[in-house]
Design brief:
This protein is mainly α. The chain contains five helices and no strands. It has helices spanning about 5-10, 15-30, 35-70, 75-110, 115-145. Helix 2 (about 15-30) runs antiparallel to helix 3 (about 35-70), helix 3 (about 35-70) packs parallel to helix 5 (about 115-145) and helix 4 packs antiparallel against helix 5. The chain starts with a helix and ends with a helix. The model has no long low-confidence stretch (mean pLDDT about 95).
Length: about 150
Protein backbone atom coordinates (compact mmCIF):
# COMPACT_ATOMS: atom_id res chain seq x y z
CA UNK A 1 0.00 0.00 0.00
CA UNK A 2 2.96 2.35 0.31
CA UNK A 3 3.11 2.90 -3.46
CA UNK A 4 -0.54 3.82 -3.86
CA UNK A 5 -1.82 7.39 -3.99
CA UNK A 6 -4.98 6.55 -2.08
CA UNK A 7 -3.10 4.95 0.81
CA UNK A 8 -0.90 8.06 0.88
CA UNK A 9 -3.96 10.32 0.79
CA UNK A 10 -5.51 8.48 3.72
CA UNK A 11 -2.38 8.96 5.83
CA UNK A 12 -1.99 12.58 4.67
CA UNK A 13 -5.46 13.50 5.96
CA UNK A 14 -4.68 12.24 9.48
CA UNK A 15 -3.32 15.64 10.68
CA UNK A 16 -6.54 17.34 9.55
CA UNK A 17 -8.58 14.79 11.49
CA UNK A 18 -6.46 15.34 14.60
CA UNK A 19 -6.64 19.12 14.24
CA UNK A 20 -10.40 18.94 13.87
CA UNK A 21 -10.84 16.75 16.91
CA UNK A 22 -8.44 18.87 18.96
CA UNK A 23 -10.08 22.13 17.87
CA UNK A 24 -13.47 20.74 18.84
CA UNK A 25 -12.36 19.74 22.32
CA UNK A 26 -10.37 22.92 23.00
CA UNK A 27 -13.15 25.01 21.48
CA UNK A 28 -15.78 23.57 23.79
CA UNK A 29 -13.50 24.27 26.74
CA UNK A 30 -12.96 27.86 25.65
CA UNK A 31 -16.67 28.35 24.97
CA UNK A 32 -17.36 27.59 28.63
CA UNK A 33 -15.18 30.46 29.86
CA UNK A 34 -16.88 33.65 31.12
CA UNK A 35 -14.88 35.91 28.76
CA UNK A 36 -16.79 36.97 25.63
CA UNK A 37 -13.53 36.96 23.67
CA UNK A 38 -12.58 33.38 24.56
CA UNK A 39 -16.15 32.15 24.29
CA UNK A 40 -16.43 33.33 20.69
CA UNK A 41 -12.97 32.06 19.82
CA UNK A 42 -13.96 28.72 21.33
CA UNK A 43 -17.19 28.56 19.36
CA UNK A 44 -15.23 29.16 16.16
CA UNK A 45 -12.72 26.46 17.07
CA UNK A 46 -15.45 23.96 17.91
CA UNK A 47 -17.48 24.64 14.77
CA UNK A 48 -14.51 24.57 12.41
CA UNK A 49 -13.13 21.56 14.24
CA UNK A 50 -16.28 19.52 13.69
CA UNK A 51 -16.27 20.42 9.99
CA UNK A 52 -12.55 19.67 9.59
CA UNK A 53 -12.90 16.33 11.36
CA UNK A 54 -15.92 15.37 9.26
CA UNK A 55 -14.14 16.26 6.01
CA UNK A 56 -11.02 14.37 7.05
CA UNK A 57 -13.04 11.34 8.12
CA UNK A 58 -14.98 11.27 4.83
CA UNK A 59 -11.80 11.80 2.79
CA UNK A 60 -9.95 9.06 4.64
CA UNK A 61 -12.87 6.66 4.17
CA UNK A 62 -13.07 7.44 0.45
CA UNK A 63 -9.30 7.02 0.06
CA UNK A 64 -9.42 3.65 1.82
CA UNK A 65 -12.16 2.39 -0.49
CA UNK A 66 -10.27 3.62 -3.56
CA UNK A 67 -7.03 2.04 -2.31
CA UNK A 68 -8.82 -1.28 -2.00
CA UNK A 69 -10.25 -0.92 -5.52
CA UNK A 70 -6.82 -0.01 -6.84
CA UNK A 71 -5.18 -3.06 -5.30
CA UNK A 72 -7.97 -5.23 -6.70
CA UNK A 73 -7.09 -3.89 -10.16
CA UNK A 74 -10.34 -1.94 -10.58
CA UNK A 75 -8.59 1.45 -10.90
CA UNK A 76 -5.95 2.16 -13.52
CA UNK A 77 -2.74 4.11 -12.98
CA UNK A 78 -4.20 6.84 -15.19
CA UNK A 79 -7.25 7.10 -12.92
CA UNK A 80 -5.00 7.22 -9.85
CA UNK A 81 -2.93 9.99 -11.47
CA UNK A 82 -6.11 11.92 -12.34
CA UNK A 83 -7.33 11.59 -8.76
CA UNK A 84 -3.99 12.88 -7.43
CA UNK A 85 -4.18 15.85 -9.80
CA UNK A 86 -7.76 16.61 -8.78
CA UNK A 87 -6.88 16.36 -5.07
CA UNK A 88 -3.96 18.77 -5.56
CA UNK A 89 -6.21 21.25 -7.39
CA UNK A 90 -8.75 21.11 -4.57
CA UNK A 91 -5.98 21.76 -2.04
CA UNK A 92 -4.76 24.77 -4.04
CA UNK A 93 -8.26 26.26 -4.31
CA UNK A 94 -8.69 25.67 -0.58
CA UNK A 95 -5.37 27.42 0.10
CA UNK A 96 -6.69 30.47 -1.74
CA UNK A 97 -9.87 30.37 0.33
CA UNK A 98 -7.77 29.99 3.48
CA UNK A 99 -6.09 33.31 2.72
CA UNK A 100 -9.54 34.88 2.49
CA UNK A 101 -10.53 33.34 5.84
CA UNK A 102 -7.43 34.81 7.48
CA UNK A 103 -7.99 38.26 5.98
CA UNK A 104 -11.71 38.22 6.84
CA UNK A 105 -10.98 37.08 10.39
CA UNK A 106 -8.36 39.73 10.99
CA UNK A 107 -10.53 42.41 9.37
CA UNK A 108 -13.44 41.42 11.62
CA UNK A 109 -11.23 41.59 14.70
CA UNK A 110 -9.89 44.98 13.64
CA UNK A 111 -13.25 46.46 12.65
CA UNK A 112 -14.85 45.40 15.93
CA UNK A 113 -11.81 46.16 18.09
CA UNK A 114 -14.07 47.55 20.83
CA UNK A 115 -16.15 44.34 21.06
CA UNK A 116 -14.37 41.41 22.70
CA UNK A 117 -16.87 38.88 21.32
CA UNK A 118 -16.34 40.01 17.71
CA UNK A 119 -12.57 40.16 18.18
CA UNK A 120 -12.68 36.57 19.46
CA UNK A 121 -14.77 35.53 16.49
CA UNK A 122 -12.36 37.18 14.06
CA UNK A 123 -9.24 35.80 15.70
CA UNK A 124 -10.86 32.35 15.85
CA UNK A 125 -11.50 32.44 12.11
CA UNK A 126 -7.95 33.65 11.42
CA UNK A 127 -6.39 30.88 13.52
CA UNK A 128 -8.37 28.19 11.72
CA UNK A 129 -7.58 29.74 8.35
CA UNK A 130 -3.87 29.87 9.17
CA UNK A 131 -3.73 26.19 10.08
CA UNK A 132 -5.67 25.26 6.95
CA UNK A 133 -3.43 27.44 4.75
CA UNK A 134 -0.32 25.70 6.05
CA UNK A 135 -1.91 22.24 5.82
CA UNK A 136 -3.39 22.69 2.33
CA UNK A 137 -0.28 24.36 0.90
CA UNK A 138 2.19 21.81 2.23
CA UNK A 139 0.01 18.88 1.22
CA UNK A 140 -0.53 20.30 -2.30
CA UNK A 141 3.22 20.71 -2.69
CA UNK A 142 3.85 17.17 -1.46
CA UNK A 143 1.19 15.65 -3.74
CA UNK A 144 2.73 17.47 -6.70
CA UNK A 145 6.24 16.30 -5.85
CA UNK A 146 5.32 12.67 -5.15
CA UNK A 147 2.45 11.88 -7.51
CA UNK A 148 2.48 14.33 -10.44
Amino acid sequence: MDHNFFAYQRRALRPLLRWGMGSSVVGVGLALLPSDYWRQMGLQAAAWGVIDAALAFAGRRSALLKAERSFAGDLSEAKEHAEADQFRRILLVNAGLDVLYIVAGLATAQYYADRPDRRGLGHGIAVQGLFLLIFDSLLARDVGARWL
